[in-house]
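Researcher: I'd like a candidate sequence for this fold, 90 residues long. If you have to choose between options at a position, lean toward the conservative one.
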């Protein structure tokens, strides 16, 4: 089993390209390059119906609206992302 790299509360940055080649379409373009906070972790995701192996650990992350859409945005954006798209926000 893959041990997730991130925990709830961790700050992350969404990569502009995955850590390794993937066909995973879950990462939205608007999120790439932006900072977020992990609010839930799901571990490795098995999907035997349409994928030959388990997906990397899955997380729910929250972005401040202004992080993604500029200083006038006052909302939050919630998205689910797999680990190959996330780096620690150091």
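Model: Candidate sequence:
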């Amino acid at each position: 089993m893959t041990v997730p790299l991130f925990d709830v509360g961790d700050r992350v940055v969404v990569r502009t390209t995955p850590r390794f080649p993937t066909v995973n379409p879950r990462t939205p373009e608007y999120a790439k390059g932006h900072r977020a906070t992990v609010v839930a972790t799901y571990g490795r995701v098995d999907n035997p119906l349409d994928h030959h192996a388990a997906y990397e650990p899955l997380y729910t992350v929250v972005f401040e609206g202004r992080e993604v859409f500029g200083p006038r945005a006052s909302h939050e954006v919630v998205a689910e992302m797999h680990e190959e798209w996330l780096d620690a926000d150091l």
